[in-house]
Amino acid sequence: METEARLISLSRESFPPGNPGLDPRPERQSGRPAYTARPPYSDEFLQPSSRRGVCRDMGRCHPALEKNAIWVSFRAVKLTEQELLIFDGATASPVPGLTLAAGNVPLAPVPSVDSSFYAEVPLSESGPVTLTASFQSGALTESHDIEWMPANLLAHETLDIRQGDSLRLDAWTGETPAGTFTVTLDGTLLADDQSNTTHTSGTPFKATFDTPGVHTLVATWGATTGTVTLRVHAADFGPAAGTRVFSPREWIPESLGADLAVEPDSRLAWQETTSGDDPRSFQVTASEAGAFQVLARIPADADGAPSAIVARGTVNAFYLAYIDETADAQVIHVFPDGSRLMSGTLVAVGIPQDIAIRVSSIFQGTVFVNGSDCLWLTAADFDQNGIATIFFEQDGNGHCKPGAVEFTGVYLYGGHGSFHGC
Q1: pTM of the model
Q2: Domain 28-47+320-420 CATH class label
Q3: What is the C-alpha to C-alpha distance for residues 344 and 328, in angstroms, rounded to an integer?
Q4: β-strand 241-244 against 309-320: which pairing, if any?
Q5: pLDDT in tens, 136-160
Q6: CA distance 102 to 131
Q7: Are 225 and 184 contacting, i.e. CB atoms less than 8 angstroms apart?
Q8: 224-233: per-residue pLDDT in tens?
Q9: Residue 357 class from Cβ within 10 Å (0-12 exposed, 13-18 middle, 19+ buried)?
């Protein structure tokens, strides 16, 4: 379940071992530096190329009210225990000068879409929890109270929540609660923390739901019985996935139900390509380099926890410049036989750990100093400025010219074979 508070806006301001195929070693063979080739990591080719309800008065409000309101100052839907705080325009975590707290409990912000963040907020059965955000080391602060509302099972037909969410269950009709009630989950009586299976109306008891799927809650209050379809949602995008900027890629999340809404960062062009009963798949194109988030949410029109964040995925977008874009090929040394040792640079921004780049020579007689016409690069081969220096040799027959290499492929390695294309 999720509460979203719009707070004050701020501006956004470990790799595998290095590739010994790049830098010359002290030893020389036949008057040339010695190199070691790096093999490809896999033969999998990556082709180059709602919101929710609003509680306007910050106090008690029925969760079914005003579900279509968008971007007001504060939004509260308070049926489940695990509430979320989200705000717009925050800097990347950890955020200098930013603190979040629920009462005296510090909260850790989690990166979300479009430079926003959210945080899990533990609610209290005994009363409202005060949510506080402090910006710029206390120069700006904002706080709101949120109260965990009970779920009257006789007032709902369906409830959608997340795996691990808790509900405060109650059952009664009329203007004031009276009498006692029982609740079964898939035919089994639910007990409170004192093992009581008969509960007093108006005194909700907490129940946690850890099993995803569709369940049936049946509440009995006197002669009145109410049946609620409880949908407990779970999802998993899987490991962070890499994609090259401006190159469409297919992404198949590990587990994503058809009934969940997907909200990508606005810097990702996003199109669902799912066919029939196949796992959900998407074509993703990034417009710039960076780590961008994608959220799976309960639909905004659901009852219970509309728009609650069920899972978060990450797309690591990287920029890769062709070697001729750098235009810096140069002759380092001319050997007695007329062949030349040359170098050039390849520039990349944000190369993920699970991406390997294949660089190939394009003219006969030009090889890398490992003796091959192919060289493999990973993130470890680029320096802190995103530059990899590549050395290659050119024979002395004059048939080739400086800069006669290019990268010819981007590959995925590391066992995450669900992200294809580039």
Answers
A1: 0.71
A2: mainly beta
A3: 6
A4: parallel
A5: 778 888 898 989 999 999 999 999 9
A6: 5
A7: no
A8: 999 999 999 9
A9: buried
